[in-house]
């Protein structure tokens, strides 16, 4: 029973595998994928109250892991709902695409429950390899020809960071004689002055920094965002981030904030990510590339919450990454709908969106406003709470730098909104019908963005209880 | 001493809800083409009419109370709360506001009904009714508000609506300019109002900022502050109620559809200033100087308006200047502390001025939107209902006994005389004569004599019932409203003044019988002289005169608009352009542009790092990790 949500995901993947043996049409596969996604979400809801451990204590099922699984399941279902018949994916591998997507979800779900180094490694690789394969599955119908290159790049980076992480893990094992995180915490508490211990943690962190796209492990982001199909990018942009945050919370709590230097290094990564992401995003013309750079800066904000090393900061990070997933999905929903053939969109392609489809323009505008951190949306509330938390810790200069970054970010988000609202479409009378399903998803996302922004209390409560389970 | 009456909230709410519904209907149906005018008309008229019925209900509820405790209030919701101060969206019904309420809703409803006929076939029928409802709703908030702040909500609301409605025919640039002018001039007045309100709050606002608390604390206000507050509030009133020097917008407001002119000139908007001064009678009664300023500005405006009115050719402009002039009388009334007389003139004026405007609208519609009186003539036979009703209105305006205007105007002039303000009285009598002259100049030229444009005359026809019916109702009001406040000398009991007494702080001057007779005699004489001159000149069918000398000067309104343009508008615009040309690009925008450029350059620099080669990225990552590990290990002491 403890393994129920993962089991359902696994079964779904198997169903997809069986389907891939026949020759089903794309709409059939998409319908099936949505049904499977819904089943997965239901399973994660059903598994919300589970508590216990599996596989010789290397796999913990508790409030923390189940909340994250629910988030992963919801985000996956939303991606599946709005990706339609996945026009960006090659027609003959549609079933396989969803198969790998589900396997990726399985890996991520297992990741958030893993409390043992080898389990973590296996789960992480399971999810990573699935996604490596999804990237080059992009069809050639669009205006993009470098999907193969992107896939290879993604794989190479992944392998490299895996190497770092394994190296770090071996140090941890060597220092503590155990691969269980609980044992490692106890043992590390005695050797905080040991350089090797800090280096080991740093290297393990690097693996997750890579997943979360933090400076200086972010270089893959823009190329992969641009090279992958829109649907794949939507998935990569939202779902692994959630799992990576979960793992970061677990690993960072290993260090427990004893080391001033670890704080300053995390700060460096955080602020570096913000500046790098925002400054590069300023000069982008491709919408997905811009969102990729914005993802880097937002990863910096998520880390900003972690480096306060307190339950409040962790809860806020959880809140922020959830809100981030919602706003990002809102933007990608628009991208997937506007790019009817799965092509890449330049910011200029948004011209006159408010006339072509008012709902999509509104979704994009609110999504981008939220990303920019404009009240009353979730992006504002999240950033505000992160900054307040950090301010209470006395991190005044970083807070100022972070606030400066939100100002820089405003420019490129607003330039996309301006394009959508203040210009006329290239061809008059052109309209876009999002369809009832996408319209429904858009409205739900907007409601989430607004509700989480206006009334964060309830969600923070849930986040706090989840965090309490790991500390 | 206060009772609660929750239906008060509905009186402004109904027209406002109507405005919202109409606006949504209009927008939702592709600018209203899918819904028939009947439905718009029904929705548009139901709110004002229901409000009127509620107002009648409130009137009877008040009447049932003893005279000194006629206060009903309703706190709809807490508007905002700052520190200890809580301002709620509160409504107050007392004798003064109920009197205003009654005629505002009645005349407003009639104008709505009339508009069904006048605006028939307009492409944006629903939009027009939506604005009209919004206008009435704002005016009702203004009247019913229980404090200056709530009043200010309505005050700004009518300002906005006047802008929307004056520039309603927005294809013509002149109309848009007129709407802008009305709005901007009003805003200048509003500035005074806001300042006055702020000073008032500073002085005695801490104990509560509604009329009843202010009235109770009025004696605490320092005299100099009192004068400042009164004068600043009056600046606001000169804007809204078109007094010197801010009267210039009202004649231009004729650009809007005629029902709008009627609404602005009779029931809403321009009466707001007079109402406000009467509302603050407890302040003005304390500082006589401020009252004198109000009275003199009022009577001078009356004179100026009358002079301009004598030399206009546009039927609506004549009426517009007559409004300016009559508003002057009202201010003269409230200025000499005869608040009930001023309000009574507001009341009667609402009827006969709405009547005259709607009648003029009927004439304009009959002549296919011709407004020059020198193209009319002899229309008596073609438009009988319009003629007779307008004649009643004209007699009321000219102050012919026993029409309503006579009593209310006489009351003001008598109060001025009895209060010892002989100068004001004398000018008032002169203006009364001028009023009779220009009013009957209009009537004689338009309706009597021979048609000046035969073709126009032949095509003229009486307006539909939906338009003439409101005319008849208003004519009854114009005829008999005066008897409500019949003075003792005619055997009356001055019901209106007694009714208003609990709301106002006023001392009735006790003039002798001789004073009273003198006042009445003066008024009647002025009327007779004015009308006979008009009869001699115009009844036989005169041709359009060529204005020279002083007449030309008056026809061009003493070139006041041009003066304002030269002295105020142009220098202001020049400064604005200088700021735009010099300060904007270099002083304010310069640093911003520099910062933006800097960030963009930084972005480009980072873009260089992002070369696209995996091997380079890999080296970055290795370097980054190495440096970080080095920093970590170096810092630890080993």
Features:
heterodimer, A: 471 residues, mainly alpha, two-stranded antiparallel ribbon, globular, B: 638 residues, 3-stranded mixed sheet, 25 helices, 71% helix, NADH dehydrogenase subunit L (chain B), transmembrane helix (chain B), transmembrane (chain B), NU5C-like (chain B), Proton_antipo_N (chain B)
Largest sheet of chain B: 3 strands, mixed
Most extensive interface: pair and counts?
A-B, 39 and 29 residues
State the total count of DSSP E strands of chain A: 2
Q: Trace the largest sheet of chain B across and list its strands.
A: 1-2-3
Q: Describe the biggest sheet of chain A? A: 2 strands, antiparallel
How would the global form of chain A be characterised?
globular
Total count of helical runs of at least 4 residues of chain A: 19
Quaternary structure classification:
heterodimer
Cα distance, first to last residue of chain A?
A: 25 Å
Alpha-beta classification of chain B: mainly alpha
The percent range for strand residues of chain B is under 5%
Q: Helix coverage percent of residues of chain B?
A: over 70%
Average pLDDT, all residues of chain A: 84
Termini separation of chain B (Å)?
85 Å
H/E topology pattern of chain A: HHEEHHHHHHHHHHHHHHHHH
Structural Rg of chain B? 29 Å
* Helical amount of chain A: over 70%
Q: How many helices of chain B?
A: 25
Question: Could you give the order of strands across the largest sheet of chain A?
Answer: 1-2
Rg of chain A over CA atoms, rounded to whole Å, is 21 Å
